[in-house]
Design goal:
The protein contains 13 helices and eleven strands. With 330 residues, it is an alpha+beta fold. Strand 5 (182-189) and strand 6 (192-197) form a beta hairpin.
């Protein structure tokens, strides 16, 4: 641990230049006294490191000195694909590993490329969760990730939406997917890959036995097929609607890209005020009712008649309720 910290001090000074003991302590999450001791050890080892006193002082490597101790560990190399995702990396228990890998890469770059990489990191940030949504609690995520890495079978107690609500499954964990701020486990059960939401895992027990990954299985291909099938299952019908210009613009945010593509492709009429008549796929009736109510007065449902009647009934009920409030009736 101390050896890794000494290397980190070297790499920090190499990539960032002059740094104070306080800055180094904050970066490495240790005390200033620990930094003083580490600097003395580096001096004793012959590292050309010197410090200046005063408010503008700090530690600095002799100009032109560069350490060649930039080799990545196995864990650091495996974590590089998460280097733009600090939040998910921390959830997987790889936050410190990703930081170390980034630091080693920065130290290995020529000065001009290092400056460019630093500017990119300062100017671009990837935030994975959707708006109005916090990350889910995923206490079993590190254990799931470890099982994926090591190809060890696991037994889970899992909560699902249909009866029976709780089931026990023995799984071959094949991969993890982060989608919209939510983690999903792709795992084989009875040799068939399925998808499990990690936040719904109530209990997890790793097993000693390992498994072989299915021949020809590719996580990205499986996930795309899963998304395509998900869209086919959830869109059980279609609705012909009229949309105001503002309502038409809101379709992608409220209904998703499948509905947005259909809305653009199925336009049958545009009136003088910009209202568009089109057809979009919808889910089951109660879900469609809620989605169309979110559009308010920017949508007019033409068909199906059942959906139009349910919207009218809901609006009438709401009107009656608020009319009573206006007359002082709770």
């Amino acid at each position: 641990m101390r050896a890794a910290r000494l290397l980190s001090i070297l790499l920090l000074l190499q990539t960032r230049g002059r740094m104070t003991a306080q800055q180094l302590a904050a970066e490495l999450e240790v005390s200033v006294r620990t930094i003083y001791r580490d600097v003395e050890s580096l001096h004793a080892a012959g590292v050309p490191l010197y410090g200046d006193a005063g408010w503008s002082g700090g530690y600095q490597l002799l100009e032109g000195y560069r350490t060649q101790l930039t080799g990545l560990t196995t864990d650091e190399a495996e974590s590089l694909f998460l280097s733009g995702l600090p939040g998910p990396a921390a959830e997987l228990g790889l936050g410190a590993v990703v930081t170390a890998a980034q630091l080693k890469l920065m130290a290995a770059l020529p000065a001009d490329l290092r400056d460019r990489a630093g500017r990119i990191r300062e100017r671009f940030h990837l935030d994975t969760p959707g708006w109005y949504r916090q990350n889910e609690e995923v206490p079993h995520l590190p254990a799931v990730a470890e099982a994926v890495w090591s190809q060890h079978r696991i037994t889970i107690r899992y909560r699902r939406w249909e009866a029976p609500r709780e089931v026990v499954r023995t799984l071959d964990p094949l991969g993890l997917v982060l989608k919209g701020g939510r983690w999903y486990l792709v795992a084989a059960s009875r040799d068939k890959p399925r998808t499990y939401r990690v936040s719904e895992i109530l209990e997890l027990n790793p097993l000693d036995e390992t498994f072989d990954r299915p021949e020809g299985f590719h996580l990205t291909d499986y996930w795309q097929d899963y998304l395509d099938e998900f869209d086919r299952r959830r869109h059980r019908g279609q609705a012909t609607i009229r949309l105001s210009p503002r309502g038409f613009e809101r379709i992608p945010d409220l209904f998703g890209h499948i509905a947005a593509q259909a809305a653009g492709a199925n336009v049958s009429d545009v009136d003088d005020e910009g209202w568009v008549t089109t057809t979009i796929p919808i889910e089951e009736m109660s879900h469609a009712l809620g989605e169309f109510l979110r559009l308010g007065t920017d949508v007019r449902v033409v068909e199906p008649i059942e959906l139009r009647d349910r919207i009218a009934a809901t609006v009438k009920e709401l009107d009656g309720y608020y009319a009573q409030l206006g007359h002082g009736v709770g």
